[in-house]
Specification:
Blueprint (H helix, E strand, L loop, with lengths): L6 E7 L1 H16 L18 E5 L5 E5 L1 E7 L39 H10 L26 H7 L26 E8 L10 H7 L2 H16 L4 E9 L4 H15 L4 E8 L8 H21 L2 E6 L24 H15 L12 H8 L8 E5 L10 H6 L8 E2 L13 E7 L26 H10 L7 E6 L3 E2 L34 E2 L1 E7 L3 H13 L3 H4 L10 H16 L20
Parallel strand pairs: 1-4, 1-6, 4-5, 6-7, 7-8, 11-12
Antiparallel strand pairs: 2-3, 9-10, 9-15, 11-15, 13-14
Helix pairs in contact: 1-8, 4-6, 6-7, 7-14, 12-14
């Protein structure tokens, strides 16, 4: 059933969140179609994009986005963007005396940004940079010649791993002049004036920073007809956790009836880290989790770390990816692919589930923290069926933890949203000949939803489950990193025969992804560990400077108590029944 467009405003707070967000917006941009002859896609892009017009009358299509970062984090990107060139101010006072100009050379652009500039100007890249015209395209590929369509066909081997310093080094879309907000009080690089502690971020949201954020919010919100809410991507391990806590509190106070879905982002590692910085990172994660969960419809950490402690286990490994998890450019691309599927329910054109309904289904009984899992890519053989793929995963679910929270493996889960995206060209049900014995119960079912539901219910037999199946995949055009193993074909499906060693791997242009968003007992040990570590030492003695700009010691202790009680919300007995409040702290 068709529905109205319910708009979403996105906020990205912090450098790693902008890494993930840049990949995510690149994926959205790559899926836009400008061909009026094509039918509307399954995903309604107007939910997160806005249409505008330049002073010269050109129509623009830009993200409904506010991105906050620190001084020195933009490099080659102009804060006001390039769509609306302000030009020279004719009213400026002119100096008639002698003038000496000191011009600083701008940072050099990498090869991708140089080519993107050429495409924006209508220049033609060398013919060798494009795929041959015989290269098969997806059924909804664009016939209109645009920057998107040319990027979709490009085959130039961009290896940006050595040249990506900041997120704008691989940004392929134009941003609105009101999108970027730079915090000038703190530096992106160097040792001095760094945003390292939770309290520093909390105290930021006042004065000019608050006025600038409110002005940008009002601009984007006032043009919405049916605002459904906000998706907030916030760095969890640095001072942006404090800023995110105050921003989500402001959104809750001002727009309490809207959904506020907050994703706490943490990289696998930080450059130039030290034991004291690692302690700060953990304390920021602890306080950020408590406070952002308090002020959001739900809070979901997203990371490839093996845990949020100072000594985590190995990063999450995906069987069909060859990535360097320490590279932010790589790890953020995996999280963006997962986030593209996790956010599907409230971006669908038909039968969408508004943000507040997603949150309500997952956060009963005060369980405001949820965990994400993902199969990136979902292991599906080329020219096979969904029952075949899931039967091959009969012993264990194909997804990996994306919230540093392992699944319990005992079938206990309070509620779950699962999404499969990108099965285009594959069969959702089996096509056995009449009279053939089905190789598994999944092969006898008559819809993709039934197949998925039956499979997941075999692991979580009592948990409420919401399912979404989206045929169209996430398109991977430059500059998405080619981090895929050689056993994948160009569409991201498993090949029946592994290419011989030394052969050229195909350029993967899309991948199927399966994700799950869960509320369950697995979050109890995860939250309890955060509480145990933060309570195990006297912060005034071990890290006295952490509280120098807040919070007060009493507020810090109250936050730890809130975290302890939050963990108890996910504790139940072996039968899956919640313990009563009279069950005191025997296990704490």
């Amino acid at each position: 059933m068709s529905s109205v467009c319910r708009e979403v405003v996105t906020l990205q707070l912090g450098h790693y969140s902008n890494f993930v967000g840049t990949h995510w917006w690149n994926l959205q941009d790559a899926s836009l179609s400008y061909d009026p002859e094509l039918p509307p896609g399954e995903i309604q892009s107007d939910v997160v994009f806005r249409e505008g017009q330049t002073l010269s009358g050109h129509v623009t299509y830009t993200p409904r986005l506010i991105a906050v970062d620190l001084k020195g984090s933009l490099r080659t990107l102009r804060q006001e963007g390039s769509l609306y060139d302000p030009g020279k101010d004719p009213s400026a006072v002119t100096w008639e005396g002698s003038l000496m100009t000191h011009k600083e050379s701008p940072p050099a652009k990498n090869c991708f940004l140089k080519d993107l500039d050429k495409l924006d100007k209508g220049e033609i890249l060398a013919e060798a940079d494009f795929l041959p015209s015989s290269q098969p395209h997806c059924s909804d590929s664009m016939s209109v010649d645009t920057v998107n369509s040319r990027l979709e066909r490009i085959r130039k081997g961009y290896r940006l791993e050595g040249s990506v310093k900041v997120w704008s080094d691989f940004l392929r879309i134009h941003l609105h002049p009101r999108t970027i907000s730079v915090v000038h009080q703190y530096n992106h690089d160097g040792e001095a004036h760094r945003l390292e502690a939770f309290g520093q971020g909390e105290t930021l949201l006042q004065g000019s920073v608050l006025e600038d954020l409110e002005d940008k919010l009002h601009f984007f919100i006032e043009e919405c007809d049916y605002l459904q809410g906000f998706q907030v991507l916030c760095d969890l391990a640095d001072g942006f956790a404090g800023l995110g806590s105050k921003v989500t509190e402001m959104l809750q106070d001002s727009y309490g009836g809207r959904g506020i879905l907050t994703w706490g982002l943490a990289p696998v590692s930080h450059p130039d880290s030290t034991p004291m910085k690692d302690l700060y990172h953990q304390l920021n994660c602890t306080l950020g989790t408590v406070q952002m969960a308090n002020h959001s419809s739900f809070f979901c950490p997203l990371t490839l770390r093996g845990g949020l402690s100072r000594r985590p286990s190995s990063p999450v490994a995906f069987p069909h990816l060859n990535l360097d998890p320490s590279l932010w450019y790589h790890s953020s691309s995996v999280l963006a692919l997962a986030l593209d599927a996790l956010t599907v329910p409230y971006r669908l054109r038909n039968n969408n589930v508004p943000m507040w309904q997603v949150a309500d289904a997952l956060t009963m009984s005060g369980r405001k923290v949820v965990a994400a899992y993902g199969a990136v890519p979902f292991p599906m053989m080329q020219s096979s069926s969904l029952p075949d793929a899931l039967s091959a995963c009969a012993d264990s679910l194909p997804w990996k933890p994306l919230s540093a929270c392992s699944e319990p493996g005992d079938g206990r889960c309070y509620s779950q949203f699962a999404t499969l995206r990108g099965f285009e060209g594959q069969r959702l049900i089996s096509s056995l000949a009449p009279g053939t014995q089905p190789p598994s119960p999944l092969h006898s079912l008559h819809s993709g939803e039934d197949v998925m539901s039956s499979y997941i219910s075999s692991f979580y037999p009592t948990a409420p489950l919401a399912l979404h199946l989206v045929s169209t995949p996430s398109k991977l055009t430059p500059p998405f990193p080619q981090i895929f193993s050689q056993d994948l074909c160009a569409q991201g499906f498993l090949q029946s025969q592994t290419p011989p060693p030394g052969s050229l791997a195909p350029v993967v242009s899309s991948v199927p992804v399966m994700t799950s968003l869960q509320s369950g007992p697995a979050l109890d040990p995860w939250l309890s560990e955060l509480h145990r570590v933060a309570s195990a030492f006297d912060i005034r003695r071990v890290a006295p400077s952490f509280l120098s700009q807040g919070p007060e010691m009493a507020d810090y202790q109250e936050a730890l108590e809130q975290l302890r009680l939050l963990a108890r919300c996910y504790r139940d007995d072996s039968s899956g029944v919640m313990r009563s409040s009279s069950s005191e702290d025997d296990d704490d």
